[in-house]
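LOG
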Amino acid sequence: MPSAPSAAAAPVPGIPQFPPVDPKNFTASTPSKQEVDAFLHQLWGYDTDRVWQIQAIQKTSAPGVNKVTVLAAQKKNPQQIGSLQFFTTPDGQHLISTEVMPFGPRPFDAAHKTLQAEANGPSRGPASKGLMLVEFADFQCPHCKAAQPTIQQLLQDFPNAHYVFENLPLTSIHSEALKAALYSECVAKQNGNDAFFKFADLVFNNQQALTPQTSDATLNDAATKAGADAAKVGACALTAEAKASVDASIKLAESLNVNETPTLYVNGRGLPLGGLPYETLKAIVQFQSQDDK
């Protein structure tokens, strides 16, 4: 005879009690549960307190566009369960939620390879690009100035990181950003990476003086203090070669859909640099450096 139904298990502290998964909610063949789980590991694996459960992978009325529903919670607060829903594109390469993102078991690899090949701006750290940090920044952007101590701390905490600075002047809102970018490219070209970073620090520290009236003097002064010949740098900044160098950096940002500064890429994973607590950012860098080995 069938056994009597057992009593429901009492909630265990630290283990979220997700509702049962209904097999009827898995009507789509793609993506697979394994692919979704691998993607979520890439997205959330840095946070060892986070757990999740895939609730549904369903067809939609749009051919090839499928809906994924995930429940997630923190072990330290297991009663608070959140829901994530997104749609996957027919090619399986992207998801659509509040934004379009890369999708798949290794969603950041394509951007990582692009940056390894094309992020050729001034750099610090070892030549190896196993752990690669790429910052897209605008010298006239206040948030970029505020983010520089964070970059310095990351480079101290991860001495194995290869860090690259890429110019992304937001010319529609910052009148002197392009000029500052052109000067910086010429300092790097004529005097090397160390001079560039001295120049960059000086420009950020005197950002309030990047005005139409005072930017020339500010940039010339920064170039001189960085050990460069200000006259040669100023002449270089007017050349087509300098403009092409900045344009290449802008084109790289556009190819990655970077639309704000500062944006930091950690092995191809794009992050709004000003939007994360430092400990979270550090955990992501640590996770990516280990996971990508």
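LOG (cont.) second protein
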Amino acid sequence: MLVLIKGAGDLATGVAVRLRRSHFQVVMTDLARPTAVRRSVAFSQAVYDGTATVEGLTARRVSGADEARRALEAGEVPVLVDPAAEILHRLPFDVLVDAILAKRNTGTRITDAPTVLALGPGFTAGVDCHGVVETMRGHDLGRLITDGAAVPNTGVPGDVGGFTAERIIRAPADGAFEPLAAIGERVELGQPVARVGNAVAASQLTGIVRGMLPAGLTVFAGMKAGDIDPRCERRHCFTVSDKSRAIAGGVLEGILFFSKKRLEKL
């Protein structure tokens, strides 16, 4: 099966890793200037660097269907700068996964592919997609929803190590972003971790920098720009997260579930 994943951030990458290990072919799309903060485990980094490797799997930036085919033949994950997902009309996709996580539907339709799945709130199974995968941390994380919608966005980050909103680094002003700490670095409560012009963002806890936007990216005040992990496990910065793995399991279940339903109708 050939799967198109819209979005190539860390959660989308977790899905791609699991699907590739399950012998699916995967193509991904993203913006020209991706804003994933967990860049060390996001295939969107290939947009900036040409390639990105996560847990032994390599993604490569490509410019069209022919280059995408060559990357697939080489065992890689092609990533296209293609916000409108025009590649959907260039290759014979069996599955579409909307992993943009915009908290709303930005254009995905249930007719886009034989199986259409979506991550998180903003979608209704049976209306604009076949199935929705829950992305809210908690008992139902990763659950495949075949009727209805995911939990609405609360605006509050999930609890990790007893911290929620404190984990997030936010841009202190509009302008060009400048990291003051690197992914994998330990920081202390109150330590400056990023700057925009003369405005500085300080860490609200002691922990490990798990994510940080790239230098030079244009940001706006309050924009999510980084992530501090209070568990202080450096390896967590460079491997797919527990949340990503749970969501990826829901996507894999959805592909198999709806594929079998299609076969039963034949």
